[in-house]
């Protein structure tokens, strides 16, 4: 058994408060100071949330949640799809770093979701769009498809045996959508 650094509810509250700050910010508000860099070097990282999100360059979790060094454990992959690599990273952050909250963060105007709905990509991209197609089925509404894709990732996380065992100790998994058009995060 391990100890979480805070409760999942407190971590979620911090994310919501950080997003509220971000909505009116002109620059990043997270602490990236020299003193904090030295502290995290000497004492390690203790992120209060694990964020699984898309690789889209407009989706920057540290900025979106007004977070600084060591606050978030961010896992990025196009379409925020989940496979064994992401599950291993989540398990590490929850079990070894004490992160109490997992957030699957989709976003509006996602190119990977659009590709799954409207195109038939080839090459390695097809691995991503095939996963998204499993999540969305015949859905053609971008926002609804985004939410379905987030939910599939949540389901995959929750059904992972190792992560499920940690959940029983207080780990929480939630979904959210980042609205590219205005910066708002909607927890779903």
From TrEMBL:
Molecular function in Gene Ontology: carbonate dehydratase activity; zinc ion binding
One Pfam family per UniProt: Pro_CA
Positions with a binding annotation for Zn(2+): 54, 56, 107, 110
GO biological process: carbon utilization
Catalytic activity, as annotated: hydrogencarbonate + H(+) = CO2 + H2O
Gene3D superfamilies: Carbonic anhydrase
UniProt-listed PROSITE patterns: PROK_CO2_ANHYDRASE_1
Cofactor field: Zn(2+)
E.C. designation(s): 4.2.1.1
Record's cofactor remark: Binds 1 zinc ion per subunit.
InterPro entries found in the cross-reference section: Carbonic_anhydrase, Carbonic_anhydrase_CS, Carbonic_anhydrase_sf
Annotated keywords: Lyase, Metal-binding, Zinc
PANTHER family tied to this protein: CARBONIC ANHYDRASE, CARBONIC ANHYDRASE 2
Annotated family: Belongs to the beta-class carbonic anhydrase family.
Protein name: carbonic anhydrase
Lineage, opening ranks: Bacteria, Bacillati, Bacillota, Clostridia, Lachnospirales
């Amino acid at each position: 058994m391990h100890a979480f650094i805070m409760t999942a509810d407190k971590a979620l509250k911090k994310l919501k408060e950080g997003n509220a700050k971000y909505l009116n910010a002109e620059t990043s508000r997270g602490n990236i100071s020299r003193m904090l860099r030295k502290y995290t070097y000497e004492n390690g990282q203790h992120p209060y949330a694990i964020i699984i999100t898309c690789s889209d360059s407009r989706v920057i979790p540290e900025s979106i949640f007004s977070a600084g060094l060591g606050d978030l454990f961010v896992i990025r992959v196009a379409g925020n799809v989940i496979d064994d690599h992401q599950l291993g990273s989540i398990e590490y952050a929850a079990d070894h770093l004490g992160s109490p909250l997992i957030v699957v963060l989709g976003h509006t105007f996602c190119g990977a979701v659009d590709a799954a709905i409207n195109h038939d990509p080839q090459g390695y991209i097809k691995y991503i769009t095939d996963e998204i197609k499993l999540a969305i089925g015949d859905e053609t509404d971008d926002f609804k498809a985004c939410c379905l894709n987030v939910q599939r990732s949540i389901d995959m996380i929750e059904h992972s045996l190792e992560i499920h065992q940690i959940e029983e100790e207080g780990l929480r998994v939630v979904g959210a959508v980042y609205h590219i058009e205005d910066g708002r995060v909607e927890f779903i």
